[in-house]
Here is the input.
Amino acid sequence: MSIHTGHRQRLRERFMTEGLDHFDQLQVLELLLFYCVPRQDTNPIAHALLDRFGSFSQVLEASVSELRKVPGVGDNVAAFITLLTATCRYYQVNRSTTGEVVTTVDQCGELLLPYFCGRRNETVFLLCLDAKCKVISCKEVGEGSVNSASVPVRRIVEMALGDNASSVILAHNHPSGVAIPSVEDRHTTKKLAMSLEAVEIELVDHLVVADDDFVSMRQSGFYDPSECMLPL
Here is the structure.
């Protein structure tokens, strides 16, 4: 009898009894792969994934094309792993429901960080608030830097007007892992603030996100709303 006989059942029962706290990352990957590789030893695939990407978190953040290069990983496994990351992000975002009142930078960060969980590309989000700082919506504007043609200022203004927002907060991530606003970020923020001011909507802040950290451009002195006021 193989030493692997009953391995799946033992691992599942251990999880149901203990949770994942005492599992190592190889065992967690093995357990997950049970549900997309039904009749095969998943240990070699889990090893191959960790050897290529280095850690459990990096496996979950890998692109479909990179996952497919790993021996034993086909379309089904690549789709399943990608779905895991997307599901985690969906869960975190779903906990931040509309109607929440946002009055501090920390509250903004807490609400917006989940939207960037596991994202490999630079993505821009717009948080729309009513006159009482209650969340109306948080929508993805698009992928690409805030100054790129794919995320025009006009679209952001139209989205804010469409949601009847009194104020908005912009947020985008730096996949490089450095949450320092670039010169382009600062220029575009000022341009956007002036465009929103023209339709009586305030750009409260612009957050730059990197991993689990963020920088408030307003709090850090990179954005001063008073400099964006239109002359009377």
Q: What stands out?
A: The chain is about 40% helix and 15% strand. Residues 102 and 108 are 6 Å apart (CA to CA).
